[in-house]
UniProtKB/TrEMBL annotation:
It comes from the Bacteria. It is found in: Cytoplasm. PANTHER family: GLUTAMATE 5-KINASE, ISOPENTENYL PHOSPHATE KINASE. Its EC number is 2.7.2.11. Keywords: Amino-acid biosynthesis, ATP-binding, Cytoplasm, Kinase, Nucleotide-binding, Proline biosynthesis, Transferase. It holds the Pfam family PUA. Residues 283-366 form the PUA domain. ATP binds at K18, S175, D176, T217, G218, G219, M220, R221, T222, K223. The lineage of its organism: Bacteria, Pseudomonadati, Pseudomonadota, Gammaproteobacteria, Lysobacterales. This is Glutamate 5-kinase. GO terms for molecular function: glutamate 5-kinase activity. It catalyses: L-glutamate + ATP = L-glutamyl 5-phosphate + ADP.
C-alpha cells in the first residue's frame, strides 16, 4: 500500500477535535485511555502554544453499555439507547478529565440548540466563555432527550457544525483508519490513500464505505459529509489515524499524515458572505457617527454607547442592518439583544447592561465576529 506523505497543517488558532467511539472503547468493551492519552497530550501541547481546542467526543453509549454488560440490556429502541447515553456520559467525561490538567466542561447539544437562533447564540457564547477561562469543552449530542427525527445522527457532522459555531480554523477528525482511500482498504488490497481532496465530489463520496466499528455510529461517508459542511463554512478538515501515536504527535508539530480536505475559501470569507447576503427582515440599528467610524475601521464590536435607536421588531440572534446617521447601511450582523432591549440600552455604557435589563448577554450589541462591513 502506498505511503502517505507528511504535509503541513493549515495555520490554526482554534480547532475542533472529534474523537470517535472506536478510539475510546473496544467493541463491546468499556472506555480505555489507550488512544485517548496521545490525543489529550496533543490538546495540552496546543493549549500551551496559546491555541484553543474544542473536543467533540463519542463514547457515552459504549460506556453505558459496558456498565450494564452483565445485565444484557437490549439496544432495541430509542429509550434504551437514551438510557445508556445518560449512564455513560459521566465516565466519558471523567476519562477526559483524568487526562487533562485543565478543567473539563461537558456541553450537550441538540438539533434545536443549533436550529434556533437564540439558543445557537447562547451555545456559542457559552463555548467562547469556556475557552476564555481556559476550560476544555467536551461536546456530545444530547441523546438523552433527542428524538429520532430531530437527531443530528453522528458526531462527525456534529463536529462540523460545532466548528462553524465556534468560528474554528480547523476541524480534526481522529479515526481508526489512516486516511480516505480510493476504496475500502479492508476489502480492496488495491485501495490507495488520498492525501489531499480539493473538492468533495460525487466520485469522492463514492469512495466511502460503512462504519468499521460495532461501537460507532459513523463511517467514512459521515466524515466526508462533515468535511463538506466544514468546507462550506471556510474550514479545512484533517482526517488522521488517532490510534497511531506518531501521527498524533506530528500534529502538534504542524504535520499531517492523513487526508487534508481543503476549504474553498477562508473561514472569514465564508462567514462574511453569509452575513452580507443572508435574508434580513426590515430591521436595523441606527448608530452615531463615532460608532459608524469605529465599525468602518474594522475589528470593532457595536457597543451600546454608539447606538441611537432600534428600528423594527427583531429578536436576539436575528440578522440586522447597522445604519449611520444618514441612513446608509454600513454593516450587517447578528444582534445579541432584541429590539426592545436595544432601545433601553441605546447610548448607555456596557457596564450598565445588567442593571438596566437584569441580565446580560455580553458587552456588545453586535459582536465583531458576527459583523460584516458593507462596502460603500
Amino acid at each position: 500500500m502506498a505511503e502517505l506523505p507528511r504535509q503541513p497543517l493549515p495555520a490554526w488558532r482554534r480547532a475542533v477535535l472529534k474523537v470517535g467511539s472506536n478510539l475510546l472503547a473496544a467493541d463491546g468493551g468499556g472506555l480505555t485511555p489507550d488512544y485517548a492519552q496521545a490525543l489529550a497530550a496533543f490538546i495540552a501541547d496546543s493549549q500551551a502554544q496559546g491555541r484553543e481546542v474544542v473536543l467533540v467526543s463519542s463514547g457515552a453509549v459504549a460506556a453505558g453499555r459496558a456498565l450494564l454488560r452483565a445485565r444484557a440490556v437490549p439496544m432495541g429502541d430509542l429509550a434504551e439507547r437514551q438510557a445508556l447515553a445518560a449512564l455513560g456520559q459521566a465516565p466519558m467525561v471523567a476519562l477526559w478529565q483524568s487526562l487533562s490538567a485543565r478543567p473539563v466542561a461537558q456541553v450537550l447539544l441538540t438539533h434545536d440548540d443549533l436550529r434556533n437562533r437564540r439558543r445557537y447564540l447562547n451555545a456559542r457564547a457559552t463555548l467562547r466563555q469556556l475557552l476564555a477561562i481556559e476550560v476544555l469543552p467536551v461536546i456530545n449530542e444530547n441523546d438523552t432527550v433527542a428524538v429520532d427525527e430531530l437527531k443530528l445522527g453522528d458526531n462527525d457532522n456534529l463536529a462540523a457544525i460545532v466548528a462553524a459555531l465556534v468560528d474554528a480554523d480547523l476541524l480534526l477528525i481522529a479515526s481508526d483508519i489512516d486516511a480516505l482511500h480510493s476504496a475500502d482498504p479492508r476489502r480492496d488490497p488495491d485501495a490507495r490513500p488520498i492525501p489531499r481532496v480539493d473538492e468533495i465530489t460525487p466520485a469522492v463520496l463514492a469512495m466511502a464505505g460503512g462504519s468499521g466499528s460495532a461501537v460507532g455510529t459513523g463511517g467514512m461517508r459521515t466524515k466526508l459529509q462533515a468535511a463538506q459542511k466544514a468546507a462550506a463554512a471556510g474550514i479545512a478538515t484533517a482526517l488522521f489515524n488517532g490510534r497511531d501515536a506518531a501521527t498524533v504527535q506530528a500534529l502538534g508539530q504542524g504535520e499531517l499524515r492523513g487526508t487534508l480536505f481543503i476549504a474553498g475559501q477562508s473561514r472569514m470569507q465564508a462567514r462574511k458572505y453569509w452575513l452580507l447576503h443572508a435574508p434580513c427582515d426590515a430591521s436595523s440599528i441606527r448608530v452615531d457617527a463615532g460608532a459608524a467610524r469605529a465599525l468602518a475601521a474594522g475589528r470593532a464590536s457595536l457597543l451600546p454607547g454608539g447606538v441611537v435607536e432600534a428600528l423594527g421588531d427583531f429578536h436576539r440572534g436575528d440578522l440586522v442592518e447597522v445604519v449611520d446617521p444618514s441612513g446608509r447601511v454600513v454593516a450587517r450582523g447578528l444582534s445579541q439583544y432584541g429590539a426592545v432591549d436595544v432601545r433601553r440600552l441605546a447610548g448607555r455604557h456596557s457596564r450598565d447592561i445588567d442593571d438596566l435589563l437584569g441580565y446580560s448577554y455580553g458587552p456588545a450589541i453586535v459582536h465583531r465576529d458576527d459583523l460584516a462591513l458593507v462596502s460603500a
